[in-house]
Write a structure and sequence with these properties.
The protein is α+β, with helices and mostly antiparallel strands. 27% of the residues lie in helices and 35% in strands. The protein has one helix at residues 3-16; strands at residues 22-28, 33-38, 43-47. The chain has a three-stranded antiparallel beta sheet with strand order 1-2-3, covered by helices on one side. A hairpin with a 4-residue loop joins strand 2 and strand 3. It starts with a helix and ends in a 5-residue tail after the last strand.
Length: 52
């Protein structure tokens, strides 16, 4: 699986969850990151790097 495909699938999985109060999400293909914005104003950035 390519890193791009992994990031796409991870984005879809996170966006479909009902367990997190997600307000919005952004994906940056150049930075290989997904930023998750929560309803309480918090934000988390997930950075992906291939180890292969």
């Amino acid at each position: 699986m390519s890193q791009e495909e992994f990031i796409d699938r991870l984005f879809d999985t996170i966006s479909e969850t009902k367990n997190l109060p997600i307000k919005d999400m952004d994906s940056d293909a150049i930075e290989n990151t997904i930023t998750v914005y929560l309803a309480d104003g918090g934000a988390f950035k997930i950075w992906c790097e291939s180890q292969c």
